[in-house]
Amino acid sequence: MSRSIDNKKLVEQFWQDLYDRDFDKVGAYFAEDGHYTDVPAPGAGAYGPAQIAARLRLGLEMLSGYEHHLKHIVADDTVVVTEHAEKWFWETGESVLLPFVSVHEVGPDGKLVRWHDYWDFNTLMNAAPAWWLEHIAKGFA
Questions:
Q1: Which residues lie across from 30 on neighbouring strands?
Q2: Among 40, 75, 92, 114, whose CB has the most other CB atoms within 10 angstroms?
Q3: Burial class of residue 15, CB neighbours in 10 A (0-12, 13-18, 19+)
Q4: Residues 51-70: tens digit of each pLDDT
Q5: Quick check: 49 and 32 in contact, CB under 8 A?
Q6: Are the CB atoms for 82 and 68 separated by under 8 Å?
Q7: Residue 30's domain is classified under what CATH number?
Q8: Secondary structure (3-state) at 91
Q9: Per the structure, how many domains does the chain have?
């Protein structure tokens, strides 16, 4: 198989594990210096498996529901780009459909070295409940 096909399959499995909310398994996809960031959000993101798992847990663990709507996934050698939307549900009744473009870069050892998510900040901020925004503002440990 070509490297592009292998990397596309890796990212497809990554998405499945993320939407199963297995945050530690998702963190394990990353190299020790792998970087994850939500580009429109403040801050530097997270580095390495443990920080990445903690950042995902911070934002997603308190959701009452979480759906993934995949539109396109393409790969070119070490880079995999996914166009998708996530529907988030909070226990207090709020929800949002958040469109994303996600860029993953796969290192030579098959570990992710970069994951950058591009989405509209205002779409999320206008839908999210105040208690959740206060929760994520505390950051991850």
A1: 112
A2: 75
A3: middle
A4: 999 999 999 999 999 999 99
A5: yes
A6: no
A7: 3.10.450.50
A8: coil
A9: 1
